[in-house]
From TrEMBL:
The keyword DNA damage applies. Pfam families: FACT-Spt16_Nlob (PF14826), Peptidase_M24 (PF00557), PH_SPT16 (PF24824), Rttp106-like_middle (PF08512), SPT16 (PF08644), SPT16_C (PF21091). Residues 1005-1022 have a biased composition (Basic and acidic residues). Residues 927-1058 are annotated as: Disordered. Component of the FACT complex. The lineage of its organism: Eukaryota, Metazoa, Spiralia, Gnathifera, Rotifera. It comes from Rotaria sordida. Keywords: Chromosome, Coiled coil, DNA damage, DNA repair, DNA replication, Nucleus, Transcription, Transcription regulation. Residues 808-898 form the Histone chaperone RTT106/FACT complex subunit SPT16-like middle domain. One of its GO terms (cellular component) is FACT complex. PANTHER family: CDC68 RELATED (PTHR13980), FACT COMPLEX SUBUNIT SPT16 (PTHR13980:SF15). Residues 7-177 form the FACT complex subunit SPT16 N-terminal lobe domain. CDD domains: CDC68-like. This is FACT complex subunit.
Amino acid sequence: MPSDIVIDSARCLERIRRLYSTWRNNDGADSSINDNAILHSVDAIVIIRGQKEDDFTYSKSAAMQTWLFGYEMHDVLVVFCQDSVIIYAGAKKINYLKQIESEHNNKENAPRNFNFITRKENDEKNFDEIIKQIKMSHQGKILGVFSKDKMEGPFCEQWQNCLNQHSLTTVDISNSIGYLLAVKDNDELSLIRKACEITGKLYSKHLKDQIINIVDSERKVKHSKLSEGLESALNDEKYVSNVDANYVEMCYPAIVQSGGNYNLKFSATVDKNPLHYGGSSIICAFGIRFKSYCSNLVRTLLVNPSEEMKNTYQFLLDCEEVILRELKHDALLCDVYKKVREKVENERPEFLNKMTNNLGTALGIEFRESTIAITSKCAVRAKKGMTFQISIGISGLENPDGIDEQSKTYALFIGDTIVVNENESCTIYTSSKKDISHIAIILKDDGTQEGDVDETPAIAPRRGVVEKARIDPSVPEKTRQEYQKTLLRKLNGRAEARLTSQGDKVSAEKARKINNSYKSEGQLPQDPDIQDVKLYMDKRYETLILPINGTPTPFHISTIKNVSLAVEGEYIYLRINFFHPGGIGKQADTIDKENVYIKELTYRASNDKKDDVVPASNNLSHIHKLILEIQKKFKDQEQERKQMEGVVKQDALILNPSKTNPKLKDLYIRPSLANKKINGTLEAHTNGFRYTSVRGDKIDILYSNVSHAFFQPCDNEMIILIHFHLKHAIVFGKRKQTEVQFYTEVGELTTDLGKHRNMHDKDDVFAEQAERELRNKLKGAFQSFIDKVLQQKSFPFEFETPFRPLGFHGTPHRSMVLILPTTSCVVQLTEWPPLVIVLEEVELVHFERVHFQLKNFDMVFIMKDYSKKTQSIQAIPMAELDPIKNWLNSCDICYTEGPQSLNWAKIMKTITDDLSGFFTQGGWTFLESDSENEGAGEGGGEGSDVDEDDYDPEEDGSEEEGSDSEYSGEEDDEDSDAEDSGSDEPDNLESDEESGKSWSELEEEARRADAEKLEYDSDNGGRNKKKGGAPSKKTSPIKSKKRPAHSPPPTNGKKRKR
């Protein structure tokens, strides 16, 4: 055996004391086990291991050695007598086991001495000496042994011969020892938890992905090949990280079954039939041993499941919940079985004969403890700390919708590794999710009917897109356009039904809050200034009381627009302007126009000071200062109130006192808490995350408040990050935030270009190697954190990773960045501010400035909530247009395109003002028809099918060049100016030049034209004396057209190019 192995002496002695306590029937014994009477009757306990077996088998002897000494040893005899422990083995093993003596101090319930006997050539003589000591223990007649264990090899044969010669009786104590080993301490639970973590990662990251890819690519792969591939994955650091791979092994050969041939037992052999995915179930079962402690996981994947299959699977999940709920401390295992049986009998009695008879067994060093099983006859009581592998399945189910004979029959099987708690449901250690949305593989058929809409999300709805979008970008344009027309038609129908059912609530604006100063006259302050008909400011109610015709009249500070103080000669004038319907600004627009309003008031007071009397102007000066002061205070309060809009009070974070909570250290947060970067620690608790900075700031993010979570590795990036897109804003840094990011830097963000570099420089080589190691270390740490978080039962979402193969460059804010799609969003997380667009909230996508002469185009996302502002990504390279179209098409997202940049602020306002009229006129089809008309106009010719209001073929080109766009002019506002700032077209410059001519210039042009015409008429030869011929017919630049009802909403004023 290896010389560097060290025994945990304290733990070994503690477990020996537990063994003696159970044997001697002290307080630690459990009276619920009938077999304990057999254990109490024995005079000594014998544990013997022979030679090493060719094939691995579970045995109680090996389990006891691992439990006591932490290592399995062969050709070793251990005998527990009344007052001593006899250990007989080779010299190396004795040296290893003698480490126990250093901790042995004759403690309570510990044996009095250890008797180490080194094995030499003559085993029989030593065996005789050991039997003499056994006969001195109690009555020395009965030995407790593990009769079911195989005793192979000469060492065991000689021992058996000696026992036969001395006429000693042997009894089997396997059941009692099995119950002793079933209750795990904290060290054992941590090893089982680690084994479950590896099991879950292998299933989620390897086996499940393998099956999805096989189904997606329609390949033929044998069940045995998948099983062997899973075993070979144990040596891959991608799946087995941060542990010594020498301690990781399979509990049993992985089971993969499909195609109607199912055997819901863990002893089943894997056949060589190919994986079948024609509308049936795929059962996967395997377990991982870590440092000899086992785990188990069973999952069923459904391919194109019918409603009946989904309902049956959900019923099976409910049955497992009954096991988790009923399996508590001191519960009879047979009662747990009866509870599940009753549920099946009451709700789905047809499954009684098809359900598995064994719902789980105790699990630990041995994969199954058959005497501690959830069956109808097991009267054993569960204890806190016991670990079980629970598994429930239904076989022989019929699927009438199956496409072939193999898919007509299916089975369902699920299982997990759990630990028993005292007064609450069991804790699940296997983290892989098993609800219908995570196990259903939905295959879309090209021939799917319009009504055949399956609301069950696939395992990875867009994962196939990642592999196909770049591999096969040449999707036929005609096919794409036809599918997009179908999507647009469905979109209009859904949008009309959704929005019109809301009663045009989309267009309803929030009513402006009316601030009432006083509820009654009795609340008016009784101040002498009011009695003296002076101006008075009531600070408590933020109200200015003005005398009007001798009557004090209150005005709330929110009604005052501005105030000014002017000195003219001997008088001071105080002018107060109020908000009113005829004014400018948002406040004026929200005022009820049916009432009568005061526009302004002016008060005059004298500056003269007579007979030491305070001049009347002091009152105006004082009130002027108070108005400005109260106005500033009120505006700050309003700003703070607006800032807090949308902020929902969160529940309190439930802290988990455990020291093993998932934790990431040395993380920076964005947006920053201060002007400089401050690092801190992100820790996962029971119902949320807590970030604690080094200076003590605490930020809590509840799981229930997270809409989407993203993990972006440091591949081709200088930072590695975790990003949360929140449902409701939280406040920190005096601002509300819906985007919170935690990141750490991988390498240097800046590079010294002036430094001389040599490719053979050792320092640079070492630096690159160190950076690669740092990247791998950080990726492992972040991935381990995420895996541990996902294991928590209360964790309601998954972390999405951006798909780099589908990335494209664009400018969502200020700089050009790489936009990356994820499973359900489009994100840019590297630079701040980030971009997160949830695809489920997108109504359609419109491509602007799509023209063969331009190098870039813009992409606009219109949201389903029409009150939200559209989001745009600008300056996307034209080469990315087709891949983006393919991606959107595969995601069933409708898109349109056009050569113009549209004024979306005005378009959305026009739509929300009259929703019913918008959909009556065709809804979003105006974008599609606009695109078609533009394409026809570029072709030219008299046959072009163009709306006559948009283009008149009888007018020559000069008129078109001289006229402005029918949607430009006074409709342009600040938004359109901002959108037009990046455009530079020569046609617009021409139009602006000509539209700027004065009336005198236009009259001079008309006069010259008349003179040339007269000169032409007087020519006898009918020739023009001007070589240039007759001038082109001009139209007045101020000519305007009324926009017809069926034409599209106003654009930002850019002229179309014909």
